[in-house]
Every structure is written in structure tokens, then in C-alpha cells.
């Protein structure tokens, strides 16, 4: 089966499993798991920040970040297609008491100039804007990389208005692989950063919220409140440490395969290869649900996101032969 629905479908490699089973562990709620502590220290250092907090999911890391920056009854600004408002089950409102207002841009690509007019400064008659969240790469936008100049402009804006900045960096690894921008530069621009170890990096479970020491201490309280205090989580952290050490450099292979996939399918009118920047290929196929069902019968899985569109993602469990098979199956079906 060539599973292109998501980059979350990978299984640990034998070497990663070996790192997991040989991990030193302890009770992480007591702060005594050496593997979790090492992972947190390594991730913080990578992003040039003081601390990191290991979480079971990216949604939890995002929601902790938002709760650190925005109090109940205050407002977060973000893109209309952002994961934090579309795919986290209303958690910002339900659990954080946070209201959200969104901007709309093509492919989710940040345009910092659009945001300044949206900001509500503290006053007695309008909801106060406290923070802005940005997704990089942008998932539903199609793996869009946020331009570093726009991120710098956003930081300048946030400084002027004293706003918090949260980076949903579930796929920041792919942004780095595509641009070479160092992780520490992203870390320097944002107050809180979430990253996923279970997407392109291929760990089975785990995310991190990366921030300063004071916020990290508060993050541990919020994490426990959300039910995210884990015990011998070092077995999972060991997979994350292995992924950070070994699976970042290979992401360029996923990007090359996504390019090849998009260029091969483009002549059939299902995608625009010029829009593919990382490992996500958005496909537009009328009646895609039927095509996806037929493709699955021939060993290729693609994800359906609407009546006429979906996506195909590359990751380390897909090789060149898998891509060739997917191209053949999908192009035959849409022809
Ligand atoms: C996958 C993803 C997350 C986190 O998802 P979980 O399934 O909760 O780990 C957050 N943001 C983006 C953009 C994502 O794609």
C-alpha cells in the first residue's frame, strides 16, 4: 500500500525502535525522565530558546502555546485555514476561553500588511487582541513556506503592539529543508513554537512546545491540566531524539518526490506543480471520493478534503517506486 494521505502514517524504522527500547526512562511528571529531559534540552537548543515541553500531540502543544499568550476573553488572530482553528476541535474557545478572528490569503501565505488593521488594542468596548498565530509550513495551503521577510515584518508588528507570536511549526522541518533558514531564526521570531515529531520526522508519537523558561514552567501546569502529564514517556522521547538527529536532512528527498509526483500528474490537470514547495501536493479532481476509493483498491491512498479536492503527501515510508505506482493509478483513473 502506498499511503499518501498524510505524513503521519509512517512506522518507526528498526533503528528508531532500537533507540526506543534502549531508552533510559523515569517519571516525567516528577521531571525525572532522562530521555524526555534530553529531548526537551536538544529541541530548545536547536531553536535557540530556553526550554521545551514534550506533549503527546501537536494540538496540545499549540493549545498550550495559545493559552500562554492569550487569556480567557481575549483574542487570537490567525489564518482562516489554520490548524489551530479548524482541526483542534474548538479547543481555543472550549478550553482556553480564547476568541479568534481570521484573515484570508491565497495558499495560507502570510501577508503581514493585512494584519495590522485587524489589531484591537486594549479598550473598554472591543475584544483585546493578544496574539497572532502563524502556520509554517501551511498545511491546507499546500505545504506553503512562509517567507522569512514576512515573518520578520510580523515580529516587528508584534513588538509595536506588544502582541504574542505563536508558530504552529508542525512542519517547520519542511520549511527549513526548503529554505535553509536556521531553526534558531524561527525560534528568535516567535514567543512560543510548536513542532511535531510524528509528521515528516517519522516518530510514532510526540510534539514539543518550545519557549522561554518562565513560560515553559507555566506550560507544564497547563499540560497537566489538559491531561498531558505522561510518566515513562522517555520511550517516546527517544524516538523523537532519534528523529531530530537522523531524519531532518532526508526531508529534501520527500520534497523532490513531491515535485516529481506533481510534475507527473500536472499534464492530467489535477494539480499545479509550481505551487508545490515542500511535501504536500494539493489535487483537484471532480468526484475525488470515487477516485480515492478506486485508487485504494489498487494500493494507493490519497486524502479527500472536499467534493473536488484532496492531497497527497510524501514521507519516508514512500519510495520512488511508490510514487511511480501512484502516478500510474491516479492518472489512469482521471484520464
Ligand atoms: C498535524 C498538525 C498539527 C498537530 O496535529 P496532532 O494530530 O494534534 O499532532 C498541528 N498543526 C498542523 C499545521 C498540523 O498539520
Automatic annotation (TrEMBL):
State the protein's name.
Threonine aldolase family protein
* Pfam families given in the database record: Beta_elim_lyase (PF01212)
Gene3D superfamilies cross-referenced by the UniProt entry: Aspartate Aminotransferase, domain 1 (3.90.1150.10), Type I PLP-dependent aspartate aminotransferase-like (Major domain) (3.40.640.10)
As cofactor, the record names:
pyridoxal 5'-phosphate
This protein's source sits in the domain of life called: Bacteria
Chain ranges of the Aromatic amino acid beta-eliminating lyase/threonine aldolase domain: 3-284
* Family per record: Belongs to the threonine aldolase family.
Q: Which PANTHER family match?
A: L-THREONINE ALDOLASE, L-THREONINE ALDOLASE-RELATED
Which keywords does UniProt give here? Pyridoxal phosphate
Where would one find coiled-coil regions in this protein?
none
SUPFAM superfamilies according to UniProt: PLP-dependent transferases
